[in-house]
Amino acid sequence: KYNRFDLAGYVVLGSTGEGIMMSEKEGLDAIEAVAATAAEGRIVIAGTGAASTHETVAFANKAAAAGAHYGLVVTPFYYKAQMTAQVLETYFRTVADQAKIPIIMYTVPKFTGLDLPLQTVLALADHPNIAGLKDSSGNLSYVSEVLKACPPAFSLLQGHGSLLLSALVLGAKGGILALSNMAPAETVEIFRLAQAGKYEEARNIQRRVLTVNQRIVGGYGIPGIKCAMDLLEYQGGHPCPPLQPATQDVRESIKKLLAEAQLLK
Among 1, 69, 110, 131, which is most exposed with the fewest C-beta within 10 angstroms? Predict the structure, then answer.
């Protein structure tokens, strides 16, 4: 169903894809399924970050064999106090040196409780096997600083659906968005209009889907996103335990939000 839309590709085992919940076998099966069903020419990105450098490299290379074109590597976050800018730089550099596919650094403080320092990003921006950064910090000032200081070949991908247009205007190359699971046509159109300089039209769409992103993605989380996908006939299914499916009250609220955003007819 998603192949009908002009998406650049798919991410499997990201935050929305519950990658952290899956065993290695489940993850590799998921990558193979996405690679096998993606439309020709679509990019397949796999979440490959783990707590240790060794495991991150090992899984990135298994993901490559399963059909992934890029590895999305989240900041290791368990031992936060020791995750200094230098330690994170060493981690990402080592992973990039040894991975058989290019990696995309991933910062998502909402889930990790850890920021990726700007100095770390800048130190790695010219690494030949680091393609860019997925930024889900929600901090446009940070986005601006990254785009200002990094070389043109370095791709910043916006991870916060409410900020897609703002990041594109600043120079982001695209987005990896939970919102696109529910509004693929709309997010693609925001990107297309922004590339064409039609900012007012893009703003209108961004505003229309804003509450969906804020309330469903930001509020109800994975169970809410999966419920919305079910309502839109994308088959979100049940979340991985201990997450629980959306309640009936939440389901009715999500249905109303989707209708107000003109996503549910």
Answer: 1
